[in-house]
Design brief:
- By secondary structure, the protein is α+β, with helices and mostly antiparallel strands.
- The protein is built from ten helices and six strands; from the N terminus they run αααααααααββββββα.
- The protein has helices at 4-30, 33-75, 94-125, 138-163, 172-196, 200-230, 245-251, 254-268, 276-298, 360-367; strands spanning 302-305, 310-315, 318-319, 325-326, 329-332, 339-344.
Length: 368
Amino acid sequence: MDNSSEKTLGLAAVITLAWLVADLLLVRATHLVALTAGLPYLALAAALSAFVWARVRLGRRADEEQRERERFRQDRAGQSLFAGDDEVTDPFTVGRTRDQFERWLVPAATLGLAAGLGGWAWWLFGPGHLPAAAPARPLLAAALLAAQAFVLFLLSRFLLGLSRHEPQRLTRGPAVALGLACLAALVGVVGAVAVEAGQPLVDRLAGRVLAVGLGLLAVEMLWHFIWELYRPRRRGAINRAYESRLGGLLTDPGAWVKNVGGALDYQFGFKVSETWLYRFLEGALLPLVVFQLLALYLLSCLVFLGPEEAGIVERFGKPRAGGWELSSGMHCKWPWPFETVRRFPVKRIQTITIGHEDDEHEIGRAHV
């Protein structure tokens, strides 16, 4: 039996746990807010990888036990002496352990993860819980977080590829969690670079964004837990309440197209997803969306000042050295948030009236 998913999940659990310990030490040395807010994402990835590893391993052993029993029964099929022994049940089997694991531990783990993420998000928003000391060594943190994001990205993509095969569907939950930890590391890189550029406010804003994301994950897991309690039971259905659908939209954009294709097939009654037009759009949609987002971002490089306006170019909140004054017309600059332009209506004629001004028409009527 192929146990590649089991090995990859174990490797992912060990790697994420090692990164979590490294980030804890890094937080004490750098005092970065975004780095602190990114710790629960790593903890979630490590916990889910270890939990699903145990779940997959237990399922594999239960299947092996079932095959061994079937083989043993076939070997004894012709022996009348042991004809009635096949019905003897053993209460201490791997199969029964798996059933109890699926019945009790999976829902309990989902509820525990939701409570942990919610509590961590509340702690991050609480006063005095974030690092109060001045940030230090931001470039070191940015380098380590970039390396961390690269490793987590590779693990996430590999597990996402495995999850597309039905026997290894359970790997999608840890894959999404690893992808979210990768995104959190990238947000931490942005915060660390901003601190190096003299903008510690960006680091705190990044920490708040990550805290909001934790809150959304906690609410989503709690909703999935309640839904699993009351939804109709289907034979062979697997409880994956801990798997984040919102995180899947961020970490696996290709699934959007697949879901849309399934909806279209259901609505029209035939395989719309297999037509040449849909396949063309499926291949071109993601590059088109990325191109549009990149084009919209690059539009922040252009500045248009009116005839009465002048501008000051600010680089990370400070006037740019040399050529920072802009006159009316079109100008180019570095994209946001690296450079911004502050506008001033220097040529606009403005009037201020002090005291009372009589209306000429009212004065004319009074003389008449």
